[in-house]
Specification:
400 residues, alpha+beta, Elongation Factor Tu (Ef-tu), domain 3, OB fold (Dihydrolipoamide Acetyltransferase, E2P), 5 helices, 36% strand, rod-shaped
Length: 400
């Protein structure tokens, strides 16, 4: 009996349970197929993620898009140049000698005729003393010759002396007078030589530099390192102007009398008014520029020779002409490059470069006006490398 029950229980375990229905036979195949389809995508994303983490970022310089307002936005042209004194001189000695004294320092203001330096002049003074003594002797000789001449004339009128004696007395007298004039000229020459040993200011101005020290040899034309050609360099600070180089392609925008705004690189927040004084009637073929001289309308002690300056040429408009724009969006010219014949910039978005097409307007010095494509505050790559592409990883280079 037990055997029969065991057999029945084994048979019942082999029965199929009709109530339990297995899932659709194709579900696992669909999941497997989907997995095979997604596998390349997952691999590509993983590969790009790994590459971005491993690939070093390209270091670039970055600048920010800015606003220009007021006159900066209405300028016709911007040029760079240097402050130059129109009245400037390397003051030297007319004589050759050893420098005995210098009475000025750099920055001193001097008047025309003021003594700047002196050479050793004892020999010149001795020559002057000798010339004066010779003059006195010549004058004494002329007095004696005159007395003898008058005496011989009286004797001749009385028939007491021959005519030949009178003629000799006359010649001696005139020779004595000529010798007096020669000695006067010799005194004048000695006085001039002594004066040439004294170096004076040729005009009112300011001492810029000293080229010689006490004890050095000074000569009108320095023959070598053993002698100096000039003692000091001075300039008239009221004659300062800016010599700006204007491109040949833009020179038609500049006219004499045109108002300008001058900004020195040393004081970028200070603006000086000025106007175009002269356009030099020749061009520099090597740089394709024309020199334009701009004079200051208001100047102060901060303006110094050889300072670099930026000149903004303002428009000359009649009342009937439209006013210039009061604002402009600008970016450094180095940020704009060409790709496929279009002007583009590379915007910085997080750590990646994004190529952006822009519409460029006026060239305002070292910046360009952007009519469309950028907004104030956007950060862009300066001097983008030729191989830089959209989406490349970048890193801002640290500037000192």
């Amino acid at each position: 009996m037990n055997e029969l029950n065991a057999r029945d229980s084994d048979l019942s375990a082999l029965k199929i349970d009709r109530a339990r229905r297995p899932g659709p036979p194709g579900r696992w195949k669909r999941w497997l197929h989907l997995l095979w389809v997604l596998m390349p995508v997952i691999a590509y994303v993983g590969y790009q993620t790994a590459i971005n983490k491993v690939t070093p970022a390209l270091k670039v310089k970055v600048d920010t898009v800015k606003y220009l307002t007021g006159t900066e936005a209405s300028v016709e042209l911007v040029a760079t140049g240097y402050v130059v004194a129109q009245v400037k001189a390397d003051v030297s000695s007319k004589a050759t000698g050893r420098l005995k004294r210098i009475s000025v320092e750099e920055g001193d203001t001097v008047l025309a005729g003021e003594i700047l330096a002196e050479l050793d002049n004892e020999d010149f003074m001795a020559d002057l003393d000798m010339a004066r003594a010779n003059l006195k002797q010549a004058q004494a000789d002329s007095v004696a010759a005159e007395l003898n001449y008058n005496r011989q004339k009286q004797l001749f009128s009385k028939g007491m002396t021959p005519e030949e004696v009178v003629e000799n007395a006359t010649a001696n007298y005139h020779r004595a007078l000529a010798n007096v004039e020669a000695m006067k000229a010799r005194v004048t020459w000695a006085e001039v030589a002594l004066e040439n040993s004294v170096i004076r200011a040729p005009f009112n101005g300011t001492i810029l530099t000293k080229q010689a020290d006490v004890g050095e040899m000074v000569a009108p034309l320095a023959a070598g390192t053993a002698s100096r050609g000039s003692v000091v360099t001075m300039a008239d600070m009221t004659s300062l102007e800016v010599e700006a180089d204007v491109s040949e392609s833009n020179i038609q925008k500049v006219i004499v009398g045109q108002p300008c705004e001058i900004v020195l690189d040393a004081y970028p927040q200070v603006k000086y008014e000025g106007h175009v004084k002269k356009i030099i009637p020749t061009a520099d073929r090597t740089r394709a520029t024309v020199m334009t001289k701009v004079t200051f309308s208001n100047i102060d002690s901060r303006v110094l020779p050889e300072m670099s300056a930026r000149v903004s040429f303002l428009p000359v408009r009649n009342e009937s002409e439209p006013t210039a724009p009061s604002t402009a969006i600008v970016v450094k010219s180095d940020a704009v490059t060409q790709r496929d014949g279009r002007s583009v910039v590379f915007k910085v978005q997080e750590s990646y470069a994004r190529q952006t097409s822009v519409t460029v307007g006026r060239q305002l010095g070292d910046v360009k006006e952007i009519l469309s494509g950028l907004a104030v505050g956007d950060r862009v790559v300066l001097l983008p490398p030729g191989g830089l592409k959209d989406g490349d990883k970048i890193e801002e280079a640290q500037t000192l």
